Structure prediction request, 576 residues.
Amino acid sequence: MEQIVFGIGITALTGALATIAGSAEDTESNIGSQGDPNSQVQLAPQMGFVHRIFNKAVAGEPPAYGLWCALGAGLAWAFMAMQVNAVLAIVLGCVLAVFVQGVYATTAYLGRTASLAKFGQPVYVDVLKSMTSVTMAHAFIAIFCVVTLCHLINSALGHPFPLPLLGLIWGIALGAAGSATGNPYYGKERQYQNQKFGAGVPISASGNIVRYAEAGERNSLDNGWFTAKIGGSASGVCFGLIVFLEIWRTVLFEQVSAGWGAIVIGILMILVFTVIDRYIEVWARKNYGPYTEVKEASS
Amino acid sequence: MSAVAAKPQAGGAMNPTAMGVGVVLLLIILALCWYVSPGAGLMALVGVIVGGVLIGFGTHFVPVGGAPAAMGQAPGIATGVAMLAAGAGLAGLFGGAWAAEQGLLIATLTGGVGGGLMMAITCMMVNFVYVFGMGIPSASGKVAKDPITGDTQAEFKSQGTEGHGLPFVSFVGGVTGGFLGGAGGTIIYLELLSLYETTLPATMKMLPAQVMPIAVAAAGIFAVGLFLVNAVLTAYNITGTIEGPHDPKFKRWPRAIVASAVASALCGFLAILIVAM
Prediction:
């Protein structure tokens, strides 16, 4: 009983860490403009829209975070093997991983922006100086939370995978959840704030991203501020739910009916999310209505 | 033939010669494995191939819209197909590895359900953001009606786009893909783990308990690697984006099955060689 209560406590803590990690990851990728919406940041100068948005698509978010979290976890694991205190080891590992992220961010911004020179896009050194440190700070929060939850899973809950491998797995999952949930909000809702609300961006508008703020030119810090409210929170809830429910069903129900308990609970949870998803879909169709008149479908 | 003269559907065409070459390659690798390690090694390789094929097939179900989806210009999840499938499958592998001691069936199902659960949460949150954050309903660009719910799609597509969000069939596809990926990754892990557990003590001249961390780590790394190999192969097969099982590109899956089997066999053979030679 005591072990189960301990397990539930650790599960709650990992869920909370994952929620913060998801939120920080999405905000970092939006300030750095890393996900799929960065295609528009890269495209804009080619269409004649010069801007001051950061541009650091190092890689897709999942492999990038897989690298940084595996690096942080691997270094923390090495420090722990050298008898360094676990908290200090995790902090040191994550700091070193964040320096790698900073190097990637700098070279990506300089390289990608320099490639747009023929379209008149300047490399803004003040953008580089002011944005890079902010993306690094958010990346540190995300990496630290992931490495810490991996350490808890490994040492407190007894998962067989070593810490660096857990860092790679949950780093990739973090990037997948964060980019899936957060990208549309940054891509459509923020970059194309000049388009109609409640509709996708017409393909003909591609590249015409919003470049001006209330005062002066818009920069990526404005984008981080805006997307943190919904995109960041939703990404945090998404990754937090994934980590929490995956561990919760294992900790509580793994021993029920020789392992079948965790499977049945997992299937039940999938069904619950299916019902919620269908409710959201139908709610939108009823409340927002069709864009055009309903036609009889041909197939 | 120039790119202009190429048939638009060429990407979806099946090439019987290439498929035949793939099958022959597969048989050659199996024969080599039988020669090197006829018992446990061959069994492990068959498990790796089955797991790899499940991952390759499962990735076809995952609805991924890439960059256009991030602007609400196309349906699907706004990220890369290989990366999303990897994220879901690895979350499944995490659960499956945890349940490894409970046998192949339980562990595989646990891994599959873990991958399905990750995709269910992600797909639900994607629709949540589209509907409540951006005020955009779901609409498919590939079918007039949702094959499962029968909802009409065309009138919910906003002007100048190919659709947006995740219609219900895409949600079901995502969960199915996550399940198959998680199960496939877990099978690869379990097969390699059981091979390493039995062979590493003799190879490294250590006690079974001492090689356990090495066996777990090596099997886990190979499972992650094989996952990425198969997910990326499928991403090429569907040329980057797919809406789910209702998308015409889904019909290209036989080609990916052969490619996944050959790639998994080659990678699995290398994983077996480190203990068989």
Notes: The helical segments of chain B are 16-36, 40-59, 66-70, 81-98, 104-133, 168-204, 208-237, 253-276. Chain B touches chain A through 87 residues (CB under 8 Å).
